[in-house]
Amino acid sequence: MSYESPLRGNLVEGGKTYHDITLDITRPLENKASKGWWIGFSIASVFLALWISATTYTLLVGIGAWGLNKTVGWAFDITNFVFWIGIGHAGTLISAILLLFRQKWRMSINRSAEAMTIFAVLCAASFIVSHMGRPWVAYWPIPLPNAFGTLWVNFNSPLVWDVFAISTYFSVSLVFWYCGLIPDIATIRDRATTKLRKFWYGFFAMGWNGSSRTWHRYELVSLILAAISTPLVLSVHSIVSMDFATSLVPGWHTTIFPPYFVAGAIFSGFGMVLTLLVVGREVLGQKEYITEEHLDAMCRIVMLTGTMVGLAYITEFFIAAYSGVEYEQYAFLNRAFGPYWWAYWTMMTCNLLAPQIFWLKWARKTPWFIFMMSIVVNIGMWFERFVIIVTSLHRDFLPSSWVMYAPTIIEICILIGSFGLFFFFYFLFVRFLPTINMAEIKGIIKTKHSLELEKHYSELLTHGPAKANHSNDMKGESVHAN
Amino acid sequence: MLGVYNDPDVIYNATKKLIKSGYQVRDVYSPFAIHGIDRVMGIKRSRLSIVAFCFALFGITSAITLMSYTGYFDWQVNVGGKPALHLPTFIPITFELGVLCTAFGLVGCFFIVNKLAWGKNADIIDIKVTDDLFVVAIDLIDHKTDEAELSSLLKNTGAIEIRKREVDV
Question: What is the value of ipTM here, to two decimals?
Answer without folding.
Answer: 0.88
